[in-house]
Amino acid sequence: MSTQRTNRSRLVTTGWLPALFLAVAAAGCGGGGDDSTPPAGTPAPAPAPAPAPGMPAVTDGGSIDATTHLGTATFPSGVTATGGQGAAVGGMNCGTADQTVAYFTHLSIYQNGSLIQIPDRAGIVRDAAGNLTCVYPVHTHTGDFSGRIHKEGPDNTIYTLGQFFAVWGMPLSSTNVAGMTGLPLTVYVVDAGVVTQVTSDPGAIEMKSHRHIVLVLGTAITEIPVYSWAGS
């Protein structure tokens, strides 16, 4: 018995016993393999969702301002005979400019793949001498052919694309966009780079800050240029 105790003491004092325990533990853990390897049966990560079929891609259209001309000139400046001439139209009064709450929404109209220019001065009324008479809450600025529609007023009243077309004096429906008929209409909105197709009444689309509204007549488009501008 004394010999057995002596041998056991030598194993402990010389470090053999701890080493033996470590070797057994290592063997039980697979010999120190790569701990980052997932256990068998772990499912692979789900693939990223594919883009919706037929949805246009968003591209960078660059910076625009009040001097930018986008699209082919198709309509005269200002409003039509049925547009805002100073009287109430589309549920809006024409009054003094008030930029307490002001921002731009961008509008693009494509006809068979060609961009149509949005006229300036739709919603800004001047007299025969060129003096400013009044301004509707939604309008395009004088000399601005970029497609930006300005909303301004004393509060956060929501205005729609249909109200702008009313001020402009142009029809807007699923079968008639500013007098252009006989072509199928597809409507998109782009908010913060995300494209959504709108299948309801285009006139009910809200005009929001930095929202892009795209009306596509006829031939489909594969890209939507999204523009940037300083300020609201």
Protein model, in words:
The chain is of the alpha+beta class and 232 residues long. It has one domain. It has three helices and 13 strands; from the N terminus they run ααβββββββαββββββ. The strands form four sheets. Strands 2, 3, 6, 7, 10, 11 and 12 form a seven-stranded mixed sheet that branches. It starts with a helix and ends with a strand. Residues 1-39 have low confidence and may be disordered.
Kindly summarize this structure in a few lines.
With 232 residues, this protein is an alpha+beta fold. It contains 3 helices and 13 strands, in the order ααβββββββαββββββ. The strands form 4 sheets. Strands 2, 3, 6, 7, 10, 11 and 12 form a 7-stranded mixed sheet that branches.
Q: What topology emerges from the helices and strands here?
A:
Layout (H helix, E strand, L loop, with lengths): L1 H13 L1 H13 L28 E7 L37 E11 L2 E3 L7 E3 L5 E4 L2 E2 L8 E6 L7 H8 L7 E2 L2 E2 L3 E7 L2 E5 L13 E6 L5 E6 L4
Parallel strand pairs: 1-13, 2-12
Antiparallel strand pairs: 2-3, 2-7, 4-5, 6-7, 8-9, 10-11, 10-12
List the main descriptive attributes of the protein structure presented here.
232 residues, alpha+beta, seven-stranded mixed sheet, two-stranded parallel ribbon, 3 helices, 13 strands, globular, disordered N terminus
Radius of gyration: 34 Å
Q: Strand share of the residues?
A: 25-35%
**What is the overall number of helices?**
3
Strand elements, count: 13
